[in-house]
Amino acid sequence: MRPPAPPPDLPDLAAIRAAHARIHSLVACTPVLNTPALDAILGAEVHVKCENLQRVGAFKARGACNAVQSLDAAAARRGVATHSSGNHGAALAYAAQQRGIVAHVVMPENAARIKVANVEGFGGQVHFCAPTVTAREQACAAVLTATGATLVHPYDDPAVIAGQGTAALELLEARPDLDVIVAPVGGGGLLSGTAIAAHGVKPDIIVLGAEPAWADDAARSLASGCVEPLAGTTTIADGLRSSISPRTLHAMRTHVAAIGLCSEAAIVAAMRLVWEKAKIVIEPSSAVVFAAMLEGTLAVAGRRVGVIVTGGNVDLDRLPWQD
């Protein structure tokens, strides 16, 4: 199988800077924290970009706001739609609310309750479907046909990717001496935007990704050069249960040095470790980067590492170490 042709419309650094200017009043410039006790365990100097403190509780606000603010008036009047396990859906509902338009969000029926509540809290209209990628895409297509809304894809959208890249811009402004920058990867929108921004600002920085071993399609795709399918997965990192796209694969093949994998047990252990040592609430998808560090699948020992902590939307009645 031949690799896909490079998509013509990946954003560049200029587009990411323009996105930052466009959305700065709608998103928070989240803090960057360092915890020496965590450094000692991970074996690296780790600087955490706290997107768990972002509006809607996740980095997804950046991409959604950039996409919605980029719509022309006619398209905006018809509303927007997407499919999401939760964080992108809440972000799109928030972005739509800020512009005064409707947002339709297709969600799997097993989505975390807090994530459903977040979507509805921002005025989003939730449409439930079976918990598979195919079911999500089919249900979203039906909503688009019925409403005429504009699709704002969770990650396979240049405007979304540009918005996500703004977190890396802020991280590197706060910590310009980083050796490595790491982000988790599901569909690849965040990692793509992070990589493009990071190499645009600092060409010699090492960009790495992390994902669960139970959802390793990005690592397999990076190795093969083709989009490898993601089978059904029950990884606890529910925000990473998405397949990458040709667009995000192209960005990763251009900019990402490696993707570290981690076990489910390590995700739970890392999530608890960050709660206890850094005193911040992160969700399992955010913990994947720390889990890969704990299991030694990311080559970061002794380096200054920037980590995008993607979100903190956790069901406090169902903490994984209480099961």
Structural summary, described in words:
The strands form 2 sheets. A 6-stranded mixed β-sheet has the order 1-2-10-7-8-9, with helices on both faces. The protein has a 4-stranded parallel β-sheet with strand order 5-4-3-6, sandwiched between helices. By secondary structure, it is an alpha/beta fold. The protein folds into 2 domains: 13-58 and 159-322, Rossmann fold (3-Layer(aba) Sandwich); 61-157, Rossmann fold, CATH 3.40.50. The chain contains 14 helices and 10 strands. The radius of gyration is 18 Å and the shape is globular. The model has no long low-confidence stretch (mean pLDDT 92). The protein has helices spanning 13-23, 36-42, 60-69, 73-77, 87-99, 113-121, 133-147, 158-164, 166-174, 189-201, 217-224, 246-255, 264-278, 284-294; strands at residues 32-34, 45-50, 80-83, 103-108, 125-129, 150-151, 180-184, 206-212, 258-262, 304-309.
Category by helix and strand content: alpha/beta
Radius of gyration: 18 Å
How does the overall form come out from the CA principal axes?
globular
Q: Give the second-level CATH assignment, the architecture of the largest domain.
A: 3-Layer(aba) Sandwich
CATH class assignment of the largest domain? Alpha Beta
Query: Are there runs of 5+ residues with pLDDT below 50, and where?
Result: none
Task: Write the CATH fold name of the largest domain.
Answer: Rossmann fold
Q: Taking all residues together, what is the mean pLDDT?
A: 92
What is the first-to-last residue Cα distance?
Answer: 43 Å
